[in-house]
Write a structure and sequence with these properties.
heterodimer; A: alpha/beta; Glutathione S-transferase Yfyf (Class Pi), Chain A, domain 2; 4-stranded parallel β-sheet; 8 strands; B: mainly alpha; Fumarate Reductase Iron-sulfur Protein, Chain B, domain 2
Chain lengths: 316, 202
């Protein structure tokens, strides 16, 4: 944990957070402000580009667009920070690979020079979990907790790229059984429950959702069955694409696999800073937890009302 | 000689249909797979293989042997890049990265799914976002942003048209546009040839 209290990061939004789940953007911005961390906007940042799909199409394109995004943060003099595992995978892996491949770095900078940009690699790309758990530290965050849940069972979903590939991640090589997200969840008084295949992929990533939605949804079905069996009240995650897959995907599972799942699923999907912010005593409207019901066909697709009821019962 | 043995001797043995493709596999570094001992840990760790026909070890083995058909199989697009195979490989082969490289060759050869082509060409290349919020059809998402007190469009490429141009320029320079156009052309040609073959067959 750092003694420094003036954390500054360049907020890399990516695509799914700002354009499909803006309540996540709302909650990250406000929780970080509350914690005394400054998030700078990254003007003109693009898609990271996504590590399974666009990197799967053309690795050189992936490198140069990722380096351009990192260069925007470098101009601000700070690390880029993201709330998305996919963006984290791209920014972090591209940064890591470019730091270990001088030839590729030269190629990338040759291209970037044509648009008057330069990638140096001096700032490590971070995930918001890394800021909360490693930069600020659990004890610092604990100091902001005002209310604690008395009985809230949380199925924690890590996602993949936040921990893997582990040689390019800051978690000391731990990927089979990480605990950082559970620890932050339990600061709020909630219980992180064990469930089968807890660390399994949600199914959305790697171009799978775009390729065959039913396959992606089948991963999700397995996860949901296991979460329900363990008695989860809500799902907590730290990635908007997992978030989408567990939320919108829940509707798809209820549809595609209705014959084999028994009761349809309706487990609220909540992002980590939304949960944390509630325990920090922040107004739910600052956490994107108050939905405008006039808007149709938008996220969240699974009602979060059960979670709001629990907040009312246990925190107020 | 028994029938079975005769069949065995006369069976079609797959030979690399194109040494050009085999060379591509080597050039991108797939020869790293020679360290593979065929233990199958990658296949066994794969959450996709539990529900699809995708078999990690087998797909990579086929690539190494120069079997071009691995490129046209949808299987290589069903890897969710969860990286368990990469982590658990006892021979330290960066398995997931090998699959990504395989995909790169597939696209180069015109094997790209329609959904993926649209995503790359009509969405990512045009807007700079993989999931955009601009345009007529996405008004509800801009309204959603505003309902949470955020500006209708984020401070990304969406708010900086010159940044979209900059991304497109870089994608042109690095060969992405040409790659996609070539993939489209190859794909269309292949489809035409197949249709022709089907007609002639009838």
């Amino acid at each position: 944990m750092s003694e420094q209290k003036n954390w500054r990061y360049a907020f890399f939004l990516g695509c799914v957070i700002p354009n499909r789940y803006p309540m996540i953007e709302r909650s990250i911005r406000d929780v970080f402000e509350e914690l005394g961390a400054e998030l700078l906007d990254m003007p003109g940042a693009s898609c990271c580009p996504a590590p399974g799909v666009f990197r799967g199409f053309h690795i050189p394109t992936w490198f140069v667009i990722a380096a351009r995004n990192i260069a925007i943060a470098e101009d601000l003099g700070v690390s880029p920070i993201t709330g998305c595992n996919g963006c984290y995978g791209t920014l972090r892996d591209a940064w890591w690979d470019l730091e270990h491949d001088k030839e590729e770095k030269k190629q990338v900078n040759k291209l970037l020079a044509k648009v008057s940009k330069e990638y140096t690699g001096k700032f490590e790309p971070k995930h918001i979990m890394q800021a909360l758990y490693l930069d600020m530290g659990k004890e610092y965050v604990r100091g902001f907790i005002k209310h604690k849940f008395k009985d809230l069972k949380v199925a924690v979903h890590y996602g993949c790229h936040i921990v893997k590939p582990s040689d390019k991640r800051p978690w000391n090589g731990e990927y089979e059984n990480p605990t950082f997200l559970d620890e932050i969840v339990e600061l709020t008084g909630a219980t992180s429950i064990d469930y089968k295949e807890k660390f399994m992929c949600c199914g959305a990533g790697g171009a799978v959702r775009t390729a065959v939605k039913e396959v992606a949804a089948d991963f999700t079905r397995e996860k949901l069955v296991n979460m329900r069996e363990a008695g989860a009240d809500i799902i907590i995650n730290c990635c908007p694409f997992c978030h989408l897959q567990l939320d919108l995907g829940q509707v798809e599972v209820n549809n595609f696999y209705k014959d084999i799942i028994g009761e349809p699923f309706h487990i609220p999907v909540i992002y980590i800073t939304q949960l944390l912010g509630v325990a920090m005593g922040m107004d739910p409207s600052r956490l994107g937890l108050v939905k405008n019901h006039d808007l149709k066909g938008v996220s969240p697709f699974i009602s979060i009302q059960p979670f709001l009821d629990i907040i009312k019962e246990q925190l107020i | 000689m028994s029938d079975n043995i005769e069949k065995y001797i006369k069976r079609k043995v797959f030979k690399s249909s194109s040494s050009r493709i085999a060379q591509k596999f080597v050039d991108v570094g797939l020869e790293k797979l020679r360290a593979c001992i065929n233990c199958g840990t990658c296949t066994a760790s794969c959450p996709s293989g539990r529900r699809t026909a995708f078999r990690t070890r087998s797909a990579l083995r086929r690539a190494l042997s120069g079997d071009e058909s691995v490129l046209s199989d949808i299987d290589i697009w069903l890897c969710s890049t969860c990286y368990y195979c990469y982590e658990r490989c006892p021979r330290d082969i960066p398995v997931t990265d090998m699959i990504i490289k395989l995909r790169n060759i597939a696209v180069e050869e015109g094997y790209i799914l329609d959904n993926h082509f649209t995503l790359a060409s009509d969405i990512f290349y045009k807007t700079g976002h993989g999931v955009p919020a601009n345009g007529e059809n996405n008004k509800k998402w801009r309204d959603l942003r505003e309902s949470y007190g955020l500006p209708a469009l984020p401070p990304t490429v969406h708010s900086y048209p010159e940044a979209v141009k900059e991304c497109q320029f870089l994608m042109d320079e690095v060969g992405f546009r040409a790659l996609l156009d070539n993939a489209r052309e190859l794909k269309d040609k292949r489809m035409l040839a197949e249709e022709k073959k089907e007609k002639e067959g009838k």
